[in-house]
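--- STAGE predict ---
source: upstream dedup step, 1 unique chain passed
mode: sequence only
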Amino acid sequence: MTFRAHVLGAAAGGGLPQWNCGCKNCNLARAGDISAQSQSSVAFSGNGADWAIVNASPDIREQLARATALHPTGLRKSPIQSVLLTNGDIDHVAGLLTLREQQAFTLFATAEIQQVIADNPIFNALNPDFVSRKAIVLDEPFELVSGITARLIAVPGKVPLYLEGETVQTDLVGEQTVGVELEASGKRAFYIPGCAAMPDDLKARIEGANMVMFDGTLWQDDEMLRAGLSQKTGKRMGHISMSGADGSIAAFDGVKVDQKIFVHMNNTNPVLRPGSTEKALAEQAGWIVAQDGMEFEI
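--- STAGE serialize ---
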């Protein structure tokens, strides 16, 4: 059996190009000079036939249309057995509404994220006769899809933007932001699309993994401020940046991982431009910058 990952969407919320953004990357993508990217989602399979989707992006209809391995195998019969949510962000849950078409699957998330879904009546469109919702306890193993055992791990992060109050803690560690550890065929992989920092216990857990897909939202913390697009830093948004002494490239230095892949890139991130200095630096450090449609054997 082959343990596989298929990148359905490599970009952060808004995708590339973002509909209302005229930054360099978005204009290049509109002109066809760099590849457009849809919003964050990855599909995993432990046997090549049954699949789980991690995070249901608003672009999921088009993503599934492009992924032939996930096409229906019969009338109202999909190889997608489950969907797992790593947080309650709009770019990770809005696609659930596209999956309401009388298709049986299991929706996995922590109890806190499940409550966010339950509190919004629009998600009642997911008919419980077809979609079962299961709350997963942190660090407890469960079958994500045939052939894959998963564990949810707490990583530093924050609540979704639409749940923020006057005071926002961006390095919460609990059920609101998780990564997922996946095991199949004697191999071990991680998918962590949102992470505010790299504590020592997370490094130790990742050590020796066959693959890690990790938060690549921004190249530098003040990237969006420099571009004149936002007053928020990466840290304020709950994301560790790639570069710098406290960035993810430095944090992974010395951590043994067979394949390191950046996912969830913001539309401003210069690593999205082939030939950029920043992309070259990431690749020199052993990283692959994900793009829509990439497949990896783990």
